[in-house]
Design goal:
The chain is an alpha/beta fold. It contains seven helices and ten strands. The protein is globular and about 40 Å long. Bound molecules: 2-amino-2-deoxy-6-O-phosphono-alpha-D-glucopyranose (GLP).
């Protein structure tokens, strides 16, 4: 894995956005894998700026997101579909029909999961996948577990993940305890992976991801097996290395 050390969150966001912008310019019909959470927000903000001020063109781009809260409809203010529209898609010239996010309220859960993997594989996988890192070492919503799970599926969220993400939800008992997440096959099929890690809350997870053994109890450690991973981490996140 290639490690890019940056000073702070601002530098991380600009560096990540520069890589994505290059990808978009070099291959205007790229397929981008996108993440949610607080970490990629600065990157999306900078990409929006580049679209608005420099004409960065997303008109032929396709996107796939990693996950969605189970039980939240697309128009729910805490759904990841709402997040993506609000922070990114509404401000760029992307065709929303090409933006894929698992449905949090599928009619047929098994079919939804199977179809999501099929759509990603039919398009040939992601050209570039953005990932954040959970403090449990999770990527997407692949929480620590006895084995690496390859496919998109419904998962129970760890208590610490529910706590960490709870601040987005005004009323605590509305925090979903389950999510639909892509599996490791979706992630490892990407041609390039960008893992963004900021803050000392992630320091231990990052240390174990980079230096530990490949272990499903540290889900991100599987990235050691991928040939093209760039980790962009700030000083705080690197404090345990
Ligand atoms: C969330 C998301 C992940 C994200 C991670 C880190 O729960 N499902 O895709 O990367 O946890 O979130 P944050 O960036 O807010 O720390």
């Amino acid at each position: 894995m290639k490690l890019v050390e940056v000073l702070d969150y601002e530098a991380l966001s600009l560096h990540a956005a520069a890589i994505i912008a290059n990808q978009v310019r070099n291959k205007p019909n790229s397929v981008l894998g996108l993440a949610t959470g607080s970490t990629p927000l600065g990157c999306y903000k900078e990409l929006v700026r580049q679209h608005q001020e420099e004409g960065l063109d997303f008109s032929q781009i396709t996107t796939f997101n990693l996950d969605e809260y189970y039980g939240l409809a697309p128009n729910h203010r805490n759904s990841y579909r709402h997040y993506m529209n609000h922070y990114f898609f509404n401000h760029i010239n992307i065709d929303k029909k090409r933006t894929h996010i698992p449905s949090g309220v599928p009619q047929d859960l098994i079919a939804e999961c199977r179809d999501y993997d099929q759509r990603a594989s039919d398009i040939g996988g992601m050209d570039c996948q953005i990932l954040g890192l959970g403090s449990t070492g999770h990527i997407a919503f692949n929480e620590p577990s006895p084995s690496f799970e390859p496919f998109t599926r419904l998962v129970d969220l760890d208590e610490s993940t529910i706590q960490a993400n709870g601040h987005y939800f005004k009323i605590e008992n509305t925090i979903p305890r389950q999510a639909i997440t892509v599996g490791m096959r979706f992630i490892l099929n990407s041609r390039a992976i960008l893992l963004l890690v900021s803050s000392d809350k992630k320091a231990q997870a990052l240390e174990r991801t980079l230096n530990g053994t490949v272990d499903p109890m540290v889900p991100a450690s599987i990235l050691q097996l991928h040939p093209n991973v760039t980790v962009i981490a700030d000083k705080e996140a690197l404090s345990m290395l």
